Every structure is written in structure tokens, then in C-alpha cells.
């Protein structure tokens, strides 16, 4: 009898290892570290050699130390955590509502948080120099937007499609109220435009100190809901058959998503399409087990926002030169919106072709 060697060849074993979630998570963590380092080296005022000297502790330029340690470092950290919050919030929303096109932008959460921040700054209800007051106002607005959606949906809360439709209506109403605030206080347009577009410009350690405990708490709460969310993705009947109280599970998930989105928006404003598209990437990379996919969505969101912020800083001097401007800053939200809109059209086209 001839024995046949059925052991997989080395190439097959390598491909199988690359499919392991741990390997993918490790590779994604390296990507996040790479874009974070790039964020420290991007920008004006300090050369890459100066940044390297500051990081190694061999520099003697106080201006370079201030720019790197007091401006670029907190900005990079805030971008990472805000992106992680939006990635997780989007995945939680899409899983709880069973709608792949649900996201913080179209469920009233982001527009509500923006309305809170704009109202606080535009009408003088909170001093611009106080990030704490703006964070509180944005969080209140985010929860108010979600509460309005909850009340408007009424008995249709269990219908994902109807809830998504009501979310679009609520978002439109809140956007209109934001425009009214800007009409009442037109002189404050320059100070609130970052909340409308999304920007990491001017983020300092105070923003970081306010954001990371909030993100850590609600991120952990979302991960604890990974099991119920995985069941909800299968449908309410299957989830109920498995013993899950679907109403309570969905309600808890929505609270987590609202809190994470409000925290991110209060720090960096409305970054378009991050919470909508990052979950699709996370599911494609890590699969439907949300115990793995939720951390993956956090890493992907962090990489997307921090990477977009780095690209925006690199493009800003080029745009300033092209438009003959002394100083022109490209908001990271403008970049994520443009790129995200293109990707959304690709996703929608693929769904149409699948049908």
C-alpha cells in the first residue's frame, strides 16, 4: 500500500495562518502604529529630524518640543480614539438595527451631538476655551437625537427598516436646527465650522483626558454586548429562540452606540462616513463573530481617522500653494467625507448587483 502525504504544503500553511484572526489583528495593530508615527511626523513647524530628536530626548529646541509633545501627540491620540469610537459605534448600530446602511450619521446621533456643540459655542452657552463644557453639550445633544428617534419610532422600534427611515428624518430635522443656530449667531461660524465638517485641529491634552476614559468605559460595554449583538444580526426570532430579550439587548446596544458617537463628535466633530463604512471593512476582514470584529472595528476606525488626518496635514501645504494662501488647513472630515462617499457608492452598487 502506498502512503500519500496529505499534510498541507508550506504555502498552504502560511495562507491558513494569515487567515487566523490573531494574525490579522496583529497586522492591523502594526498598521495603527505606523499611521500614528506618520501623524507625529506630518505637519508644519518641525522637520522630521526635529521630531526624531524630540522623541529620542536629544533635542534642545523648546519650540519643537512644544509642537511635538503638546500639539501633535495629543492630536494624534485623539484622532485614534475618536476613530475607534466611531468604528465600534457604527458596527453596534448596524448589528442592533440589522441594517448595513445604518450609521451614526443617519440615526440622529451625530447630528444631535453636532447641534449640542454648535449651540454651546455659537450661542455662548459654553466658553470655547472650555472643552469640558463642549463635550457635555455634545453628549447631551447626541442622546437627545437618539431619544427623539426612539420617541418617533414608537411601536416600529422593532422594525429595522422603519427605524432607519425615522433616523434619516430625525437627522434632517437636527441638521435644520443647526442651520438655524448658525443664522442666529453668524459671527460664530468660524468657531463652529469644525463641528459641521470634523477636524482634529487644536486638539490638546485636555481633550484627550476627557475622551479616553469615556471611550474605554463604553467600548468595554460594547464588547460585553458582543454575544447579544451577534444573535441580533441573525434576526429577532433566532435571538429570542436562543433566550435573548431582544428589546433589552437592542436598547443597551443603542445606548452604547450613542455614547461612543457623542464622545467622538464632542472631540473632533462630525467625521462623515467613518461609522458607516468601517463596519463593512471589519466584517470583511474578521467575520461575523463580534467578539473579534468589534476590536477589529476599533483598530480600523483608529487607522482610518489617524491616517486621514495625516494625509490632510500633508495636503494642506500643497493646497495653500495652489490657491496662493498664506495658510490653508484641510479638515480631516472633508477628506473622510469625499473618500467615504465614493466607497459608499461602490458598496451600494455591489448590493444592487447581488440582488
From TrEMBL:
- Where is it located? Cell membrane
The way it spans or sits in the membrane comes to: Multi-pass membrane protein
Q: Carries keyword ATP-binding?
A: no
* DNA-binding recorded as keyword: no
- UniProt keyword terms in alphabetical order: Cell membrane, Membrane, Transmembrane, Transmembrane helix, Transport
Alphabetical list of InterPro entries matching this protein: ABC_BtuC-like (IPR037294), ABC_transptr_permease_BtuC (IPR000522)
Mind telling me which residue stretches traverse the membrane in this protein?
Answer: 22-42, 76-97, 109-128, 134-152, 164-185, 211-232, 252-278, 328-348
Family recorded in the similarity comment: Belongs to the binding-protein-dependent transport system permease family. FecCD subfamily.
- The name this protein goes by in its record: Iron ABC transporter permease
Native source species:
Streptomyces durocortorensis
Amino acid at each position: 500500500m502506498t502512503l500519500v502525504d496529505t499534510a498541507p504544503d508550506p504555502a498552504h500553511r502560511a495562507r491558513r495562518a494569515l487567515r487566523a484572526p490573531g494574525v490579522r489583528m496583529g497586522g492591523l495593530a502594526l498598521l495603527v502604529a505606523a499611521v500614528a508615527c506618520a501623524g507625529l511626523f506630518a505637519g508644519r513647524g518641525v522637520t522630521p529630524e526635529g521630531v526624531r530628536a524630540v522623541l529620542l530626548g536629544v533635542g534642545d529646541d523648546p519650540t519643537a518640543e512644544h509642537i511635538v509633545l503638546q500639539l501633535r501627540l495629543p492630536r494624534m491620540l485623539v484622532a485614534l480614539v475618536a476613530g475607534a469610537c466611531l468604528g465600534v459605534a457604527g458596527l453596534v448600530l448596524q448589528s442592533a438595527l440589522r441594517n448595513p446602511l445604518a450609521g451614526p450619521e443617519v440615526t440622529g446621533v451625530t447630528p444631535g451631538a453636532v447641534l449640542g456643540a454648535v449651540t454651546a459655542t455659537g450661542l455662548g452657552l459654553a466658553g470655547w476655551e472650555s472643552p469640558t463644557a463642549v463635550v457635555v453639550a455634545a453628549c447631551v445633544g447626541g442622546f437627545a437625537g437618539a431619544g427623539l428617534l426612539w420617541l418617533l419610532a414608537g411601536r416600529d422600534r422593532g422594525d429595522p427598516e422603519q427605524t432607519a427611515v425615522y433616523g434619516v428624518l430625525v437627522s434632517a430635522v437636527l441638521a435644520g436646527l443647526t442651520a438655524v443656530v448658525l443664522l442666529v449667531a453668524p459671527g460664530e461660524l468660524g468657531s463652529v465650522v469644525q463641528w459641521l465638517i470634523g477636524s482634529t485641529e487644536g486638539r490638546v491634552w485636555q481633550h484627550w483626558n476627557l475622551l479616553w476614559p469615556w471611550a474605554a468605559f463604553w467600548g468595554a460595554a460594547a464588547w460585553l454586548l458582543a454575544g447579544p449583538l451577534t444573535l441580533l444580526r441573525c434576526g429577532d426570532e433566532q435571538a429570542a429562540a436562543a433566550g435573548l430579550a431582544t428589546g433589552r439587548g437592542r436598547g443597551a446596544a443603542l445606548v452604547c452606540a450613542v455614547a461612543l458617537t457623542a464622545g467622538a463628535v464632542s472631540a473632533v466633530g462630525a467625521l462623515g462616513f467613518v461609522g458607516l463604512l468601517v463596519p463593512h471593512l471589519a466584517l470583511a476582514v474578521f467575520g461575523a463573530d463580534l467578539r473579534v470584529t468589534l476590536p477589529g472595528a476599533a483598530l480600523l476606525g483608529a487607522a482610518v481617522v489617524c491616517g486621514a488626518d495625516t494625509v490632510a496635514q500633508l495636503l494642506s501645504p500643497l493646497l495653500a500653494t495652489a490657491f496662493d494662501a498664506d495658510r490653508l488647513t484641510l479638515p480631516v472630515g472633508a477628506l473622510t467625507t469625499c473618500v467615504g462617499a465614493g466607497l459608499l457608492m461602490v458598496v451600494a452598487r455591489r448590493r444592487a448587483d447581488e440582488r
